[in-house]
Amino acid sequence: MADHYEVLGVARDASADEIKKAYRRLARQLHPDVNPGPEASERFKDVTHAYDVLSDPRQRQEYDMGGSQGAQSFGFGDIFESFFGGGMRTGGPKSRQERGQDALLRVEIDLEDVVFGTHRDLEIDTAVLCDVCHGACTQPGTSVATCDICHGTGQIQRAVRSLLGNVMTSTPCTVCRGYGTVIPYPCTNCAGQGRVRARTTIPVDIPGGVETGLRLQLAGMGEVGQAGGPSGDLYLEIKVRHHDVFSRAGDDLLATLEVQMTDAVLGTTATLEGLDGPVEVEVKPGVQSAEVITVPARGITRLRGSGRGDLRIGVQVVTPTKLDAKATELVRQLAGRTKQKPPQFAHFQQGLFAKLRDRFLGV
User: Fold this and answer.
1) Which residue in 356, 135, 112, 165 sits closest to 227, CA to CA?
2) pLDDT per position as a tens digit, 255-273
3) Per the CB 3.0–4.6 Å rule, which of 62, 208, 256, 276 could disulfide with 301?
4) Among candidates 234, 237, 287, 291, which has minimal Cα distance to 264?
């Protein structure tokens, strides 16, 4: 067998970096994808074997001391690894197809969209199937070829010496990288990957009832895998934009209604614009600040379950600040005709309106 240093064309005192550079230079010249001739193939085997020996400090030391042509000396740990799976792989060559990566996309929607759900056409940059080779990775009219180094097994077997005698070890083929096949003519559109990066439009139906931070999983809508492998999943992370009038508590919508003092005393009916159309609100006579008017089934569509939440309206009675003399006199007359309690502390209003108090406090 030829001397390993001569095979790589380096001196016996060559550094590890010099050995690596020499191997890379020869591998580019002799690789079957570049130089398919039988003579080049044999030389490529010799170059690969020489590099395997000289790139390993322990093997190189044994070789320099006159050991066998790259035969390895195993310790007990190496022997057990060989017998119980260390570096051994069964089941034939591995598949070129790989599952595509999952993708995460953040989507902002308005509160109006949360009520009933919405449809979006999302444009994303992702990996899609190559439209030239359709995942085959080869130029049209060509196909992959059986690796003539491992003969399609994806593995290289070598006999190594150990305390128990010669032991067969199996490692992934360095030529085909364990696939068992090589690509003589890679697809020029995808560089032999079977997929390309492209901007694509994905139609998405966002259901009603979603909230900020929720992630929706769209199975099979992520990146296409290598060599036409199955697609990953696409995850949509929802963010609901702030609304100036309405807020949310679970499946209910919250709002604040400013009521003039006279309307609070006499009562009134108002038609207001809700998120999904007009809302008729009845203000009963004598309504107090912090009371809550509930409009059933005008809230958020429930994400899990059926029906909708309610629209809960907290009342804020507005006291007039500028009155003319006649209006002021009328108020005095009203005060004289009713029994007025002096100002006093009252119990803090608990219950449903407590969830709305921050809005009145301006927090």
Assistant:
1) 135
2) 999 999 989 999 999 999 9
3) 208
4) 287
Cα dihedral sign, 5-6-8-12: positive
329 has a pLDDT exceeding 70? yes
Q: Evaluate whether 239 touches 248 at the Cβ level (below 8 Å).
A: no
Between CA 246 and CA 228 the distance in angstroms is 47
Which residues have CB under 8 Å from 79's CB, separation 6+?
162, 163, 164, 167
Task: Find, among 195, 192, 196, the residue nearest to 143 by Cα.
Answer: 192
- How many whole angstroms separate alpha carbon 247 and alpha carbon 10? 75
Q: DSSP readout, 31-91?
A: -TTT--SHHHHHHHHHHHHHHHHHTSHHHHHHHHTT-SSS--B--HHHHHHHHTTSS---S
DSSP letter assigned to residue 231: P
Q: Residues 18, 21, 25, CA angle at the centre, nearest 5°?
A: 140
Domains of the chain: 1-71 (1.10.287.110), 103-138+185-240 (2.60.260.20), 247-361 (2.60.260.20)
Tell me whether strands 311-318 and 292-295 are parallel, antiparallel or unpaired.
antiparallel
Q: What is the pLDDT of residues 85-142, one digit of tens each?
A: 444 445 578 899 999 999 999 999 999 999 999 999 999 999 999 999 999 999 999 9
